[in-house]
Amino acid sequence: MSQLNYSFDELMAEHDYATKICHKDKTLHGGLLADGTYRPPRSLNRTPAIEAWWGRLKEKGHAVAVMDRDAINRANVFFPTVGQAKLLLAHGCKDALTRILTLIGVIEGFGNDGIRLLPEMDFSEHFVESLDGTCIAHLHRGLLVAHGQDEAGSDKEYGHDEMWFAIRDRALEDPTITDDMFENLPLAPPPGYQGKAKAAPEATSVGSASRLFEQLDPMVELTFLALARILHVEYGAYTTFKWAREVLADPEVSAAPEWAPAMVDNIQADEDIHVRYLGCALAEARARTFRGTDGSTLPGAVVIDRLVEAVCNAMGGERIERMKCYRYRHIVDELASHPRGDEIHRELAKLGPLPSLPSAA
Ligand SMILES: [Fe+2]
Ligand SMILES: [Fe+2]
Known about the structure:
This protein is mostly helical. The protein contains 13 helices and seven strands. The protein has helices at 8-12, 46-59, 69-75, 82-90, 95-116, 139-152, 160-171, 201-204, 218-248, 259-286, 300-314, 317-336, 341-351; strands spanning 22-23, 26-28, 31-32, 38-39, 157-158, 289-291, 297-299. A hairpin with a 5-residue loop joins strand 3 and strand 4. The structure holds fe (ii) ion (2 copies).
């Protein structure tokens, strides 16, 4: 039978890499085995552990997807499209694309701060059934720390945020990075964020979440709501990976047509672990019974399905449109100072729909 219980150190254990990947003077996390295949950081035991927990859910008939991944992908059509992005780059318009890649890196970094907000706790008293040998029991035994370091790096190595900046700098040949690329962003950093990114006013006014289950310990509800929210972000990111891979693999517009898409593939392999463990913890909770602070019980399916519904409603239309408008606004600005801006703008419209910008107040 597969091992189901792991120590913190076991879940953080690294492969014996034959080759580490570097960018300038910094090492990137993860690495290549002797046969050249990439393995994510801290995945020696983390990957088999997650598969073992899924295996147990499967044996019991509980291996369910708690969230509609296809629906999230359908809603996350990337703007500018691959064709539109290539058109801009082919005309030397690098600024808007530089901002887009910078923002992707910034959002990756937010992931670690969001995870750090989750208070360390023992979930066993909050479920009727045992949590022995489950993914839930390992959230604070390495899984969340490993995830945070995947997103934002560690003292020793670059994580996803800096990996996207490296992709940007290699593919677009060290474009100019200005402070305003970190300001007026369409997404607010999580509380506790210490970096320089700042959200636009309209992105910070998103309402605070109200409690959905008064009888649950608030930190239990917060944790599972956060896991669902992060899973939603992770699912949506695959659209971005596909877009970036296609744009940056084209030697006509990318100076790193092999290195950049290979790095995107590596990041995606790291994210595969995140979606597997987040989905597993949520499916385990869904298959159990929550215990309220007043001694009452609530079926896991009722709690998890409601939390997932709340997340999907909150993460839908308006948030995605804000991101698209942010990207389009910078494209419009860049084309305004381009000698053939009007012509390129018309070409852009022929290649795909353009977001409708809110009229200036
Ligand atoms: Fe990431
Ligand atoms: Fe992730």
